[in-house]
Amino acid sequence: MATVVGVPKEIKDMEGRVSMQPDGVAELVHHGHEVIVQSGAGAGAGFTDEEYTEAGGRVVDGPEEVFSSSDLIVKVKEPIPEEYDLFKEGQQLFTYLHLAADKGLTEFLMERKVNSIAYETVEAPDGSLPLLTPMSEVAGRMAIQAAAHHLESPQGGAGLLLGGVPGTPAAKVTIIGGGVVGTEAAKIAVGMRAIVRVLDVSPKRLAYLSDIFEGRVDLVIPNRARTAAYVAESDVVVGAVLVHGAKAPKLVTRDMVASMRPGSVVADVAIDQGGCVETARPTTHSEPTYVEEGVVHYCVANIPGAVARTSTLALTSATLPYLIHIADRGIEGAAAEDPALAKGLSTLGGDLVSEPVAEAHDLSFTEAGKILG
Ligand SMILES: NC(=O)c1ccc[n+]([C@@H]2O[C@H](COP(=O)([O-])OP(=O)(O)OC[C@H]3O[C@@H](n4cnc5c(N)ncnc54)[C@H](O)[C@@H]3O)[C@@H](O)[C@H]2O)c1
Questions:
Q1: How far is the CA of 140 from the centre of ligand 1 (A)?
Q2: pLDDT bracket for residue 373 (50, 70, 90)
Q3: Which domains does the chain have, with CATH numbers?
Q4: Strand partners, 352
Q5: pLDDT-wise least confident of 9-13, 185-189, 310-314
């Protein structure tokens, strides 16, 4: 089956990533598909229109033709309201969606009968999330880079150097959630010589972290009292929890944030799933921080967009094999054959087929299996 695949330019604030590299276009064309690329879509990641044309893509001006001529839209970030009207009924969509944090988008995809698979919920049989992992690696590393920057006095921070210097105490970093984001954040924080703790509910994960950090990170199973005590004495708190597909639990309360020293930094990376810090609300790369309870909050929902070249190379290498399968078989056929893609199914023919998203918004849920047959 030949599919027309559309690559629009991302329009979220300062978002430089693109959903396909030119060599991915060449691969799809080799499989007998057509690829339409919006002019300038790759510019933020350093890819020119000419490179897409040479790879066999058709470059067009503006998003209208990309959306109106394509069977399958492949994006990076979830559609924002300015893009809603571009979608056709029955169109297929493969992108990050984070629907548990966005009821409006969920209802739109159902109403417009868009058939969607969310990158972040594609789940391998071992429970790993192959399309979230590369961006979580980037975001975890960037979270510490950003926190270190915002601890500086000119940025409104407490004027602390993360690792201190000999003779001064290093900053204390508490990371809540020791998955991919948390682990990468811990690596960079340890590398910058901060004092680092990771709180995670999974003993198995803590055992793994114990092996890789060999005593350089404190590893703790949290409860409310422990979380409160650690947050109160931290200069940096990183939010990095995930309950697959669901809204993030609020683990750090406003009172806990208020107990931190003024000028400390909260970096809530889990903000794309609603955030795990009560005082967190989404920010953008143009205005990445705000101060609440005296604490600088960095809650950018598309952190990897700031390092667009690295992030595009990492993301598209992971998505391409799945994308080819979807283009070859259609979303329904590919999901019926591949359990990892089936886990990522979000909306199908007007039905909501993700149970955690249905629970988050009190909407009715339909088993995808009933539709796929
Ligand atoms: N803001 C961004 O730009 C950006 C980029 C990438 C990922 N993210 C988000 O970062 C979050 C983390 O992603 P990840 O890939 O590291 O997920 P992950 O599944 O690898 O790790 C999540 C960890 O949270 C732990 N956890 C779950 N409930 C917990 C609780 N109550 N207390 C402590 N730990 C708990 C789990 O045991 C797991 O180890 C997700 O919300 C993801 O969408 C955001």
A1: 10
A2: low
A3: 4-114+307-372 (3.40.50.720), 140-301 (3.40.50.720)
A4: 347
A5: 9-13
